[in-house]
Structure formats: C-alpha cells, structure tokens
Amino acid sequence: MSAHWQVRALSHPRRVDIALVLVLLAFSVAGTVFSSFVLDQRLAIWPAVLQSAIGCSALLWRRSHPRTVVAVNALCAAVDASLGYLLTPLLQGPLMAALYSLGLFTDRRNTRIGAALTAALLVATALVANPSHHNLLLATLNPVAWVFLPAVLGTAVQLRRDYVAAVRARAEDAEQTREEEARRRVAQERIRIARELHDVVAHHLALANAQAGTAAHLVRVHSDQAGAMLDSLKETTASALREMKATVGLLRQDNESEPLGPAPGLAQLEELTAVFASAGLTVRIEIEGEARPLPPGADLSAYRIVQEALTNVTKHAATATAQVRLAYSADRLTLTVSNEGLRVSVAPPSGRGFGLIGMQERAHSAGGTLHAGPRPEGGFEVTCTLPLPLHQQPEGSRTT
Fold first, then answer.
1. CATH number of the domain enclosing 313
2. Residue 281 pLDDT level (bands cut at 50, 70, 90)
3. Is 310 helix (H, G, I), strand (E, B) or coil?
4. Is residue 54 a contact partner of residue 93, using CB atoms and an 8 Å limit?
5. Which of 108, 140, 109, 142 is nearest to 125 (CA)?
C-alpha cells in the first residue's frame, strides 16, 4: 500500500503540495489558537491566521523557488513573534516545511545559509520585539531548534536519495559492463571456433584433394597401389569429420554432449607429418634443445601454425619436401616451417585468403610473433616465436 501511495505522490506532485498546504494551514491556525487562548495571552487571531495563510500558500512554489519560500515564511514567523505569539512547532509548521524543502531541493551550502539567516532573524525578533515578555530562553532557543531540525532532515533525505541514485547508476553500469563483456567473450569464442573450422577444413580438404589426385593417377598407372591410397583418403576424410564434430560440438548447449577429446598439440607432429606423407609431401622434423611442454593454448596454436604452413606447401608449392624446425631456448620456442623450390603463397591468387592472417592471430593470442615470406635462396618460410616458462636450457640437440 505504501509503495502505491509513493508512486501516486511522485506522479501528482501538485496535488501533494495542495494537500500539504491545507494540512499545515490547519495546524498553524491551531497553533494560533493555542498561543492566544491556552497561554492566556488574549491576542488577536486574524493577523496570525493571515500570516499562516501567506506562508502556507507560498509552499506551492517550494520545489521551484525553495529559497524564496523560506524567506517569505521566515518573515511571517518574525511578524508573528513581534505580535507576541509564542513560536510553537504548530505555528512554525509552514516555516519548517519550507526549510525541509530547502534542504531537499538545494545543496548543503544554501541550506546552511538559509537556516542560519532564519535562526538569526527569529532570535533578533525575540530580543528586540517581545511585547508579551515571554521567557527569553524559551523565545530564542525554541524556534532555533525547530529551524535547524527540518533543514538537517531535508539534507539527510537528499543525501540518501543521491546515494541510492549513485548505487543504482553503479549497478546499471556494472550490468552493462557484464553484458558487454559477455558479448565480447561470445564474439571471441565465435572467432576461435571459426578459426578452428578453417584450419580443419582447409587442411583435410587439401590433403584429400592431393590424395584423390594421386589415387586417380595410380588407378591408371599402378592399379595395385591405388587401394592403399584410397585407404589413406578414407582415413583423411574420417579424421576431418572427427575434428569437425569436436569443434562444432562446442556450440551445443545441452548437458548431454559427450566429453571432447584433448586438443591437438606438438606431441602429435609425427602423426601430422605421416598424414602429409600419404599425400606425397615428405616432412623432416628438427628439434634443438630440450623439448618442453607448452601451455595448452600455445601448444594448440603451434600445432595449427605447423598444420596451416604444411597445408599451404601442399596446395601452392611445387615441391615434395618441407622442413619443420623446433628450437627450444630458455624462455622461448622458435618454430620454423620452410620448403625449397618454387615460391609458395599463403593466400589464393585473389589475395583474400585467411591462412597468413589466421597464423598471425594464433601467434599473437599465445603472446608470440610470426613472420612469413619468401626465402632468398628460394622457397618460402614461416617463423613463429612463442614464449616458454623459464627453464634452464641444457646443451644438445637432436634431429628426426
């Protein structure tokens, strides 16, 4: 019920002000009667009622002109005190409402100045003009106390509203930040999955195309060897389907999806080169230094870079050999994929391919660098440097 009335009050502020004026006018008239008859002062009622009506009417502009409303009510209260009325809380009701509005709708500096000037005016009136000879302590401290109380209360309410508004704004900003972070993560995940699909499809389709061409040639020349090549082609397509299923399976949102296998890494280089060997590309692997495991993200990036570079050799280079060199140092791994012979292109003739861009993004995502370009002696070379956890590098190297 209270929330309903609060909503109605906020939506009809003018009606609230009119109701406040009527209530305060009734209380102010009651305070006039109290001062005149109960205190046995026998003062004229109509001047105080007139002052109350003026002060209460001024409250209709308390939202737009709070300082002016305080000044009008302070003068009305001073006139009442000069006429001999004791400024009780009932008689000061319009002034208290004006000071509360001053604290609510202005800053603290204006509130302090307004309350201090009002208190000074009432005290000066009590000291200079006190025809009924009220007790001096009662005539001064009583109105001053009822002057500062509503001003402080109005300021406290304003501070509370500002605090709630600031908390709400921070909550909205935090919610917006969480939504933006969620959208950013979704976009990054989409890019990652798209990159994985590109690498899987481009790699396996290139191998399948090379194996299919070899099989077609063997059928015409050495039909007895064509079966083995077709078996390799079958395994290549099956491997492509498995990797695509594992990658696309990340998009599933149900809880019944099968657990995905481990991501490929440099430990599977021998298997990778064997697949390329079935397509007619002989790959030689050189390892310098002590081979050490990379973080999962960097390991996957290194594997995909080697895979993409060898796929480009298969598609675009007129050569049957390639070299993969892994050089481990104390703090980094330098990965080099090179081939001899004619120049190899990492993009189709249109120049709009994504092979080189994908390798660069993978290297940067792992905190490394990548450079790709033609070799002075012929061929093409891809060099990638990835950071490694600090480790003492023993001497020695081996070649496979």
1. 3.30.565.10
2. confident
3. helix
4. no
5. 140
Tokens of 289: 């230094």
Domain extent, residue 304, equals 262-400
**Helices 223-248, 136-221: crossing angle, 10 deg rounding:** 170
Distance, CA of 272 to CA of 304 (rounded, Å): 10
Interacting residues of 36 by C-beta distance below 8 A, sequence separation 6+: 42, 43, 44, 45, 48, 85
Tell the burial category of 15 from Cβ atoms under 10 Å away from its Cβ (0-12, 13-18, 19+).
exposed
* 115 shares a domain with 16: yes
Q: How far apart are CA 240 and CA 245, in angstroms?
A: 8
Nearest to 106 by CA among 151, 55, 168: 151
Say which range, 157-171, 195-209, 265-279, 337-351, has the weakest mean pLDDT. Answer: 337-351
SS (H, E, C) 33-86: HHHHHHCCCCCCHHHHHHHHHHHHHHHHHCCCCHHHHHHHHHHHHHHHHHCCCC
pLDDT at position 349 is 42
Does 244 reside within a domain?
Answer: no
What percent of the chain is modeled with pLDDT above 70? 68
C-beta separation of 53 from 21 below 8 A: no
CB 368 within 8 A of CB 382: no
Tell me whether residue 230 is in a domain. no
pLDDT tens for each residue of 137-191: 666 777 888 888 888 898 898 899 888 888 988 888 888 888 888 778 777 767 7
pLDDT bin (cut points 50, 70, 90) of residue 370 is very high
How many independent structural domains does the chain possess? 2
H helical segments located in the chain: 2-11, 13-33, 45-58, 66-82, 93-105, 108-128, 136-221, 223-248, 269-278, 296-316, 355-365
60-64, 100-104, 105-109, 248-252: lowest mean pLDDT where? 248-252
Distances from the Cα of 130 to the Cα of 83, 85, 88, 138, 286, angstroms: 8, 9, 15, 12, 108
Structural domain includes residue 223 = no
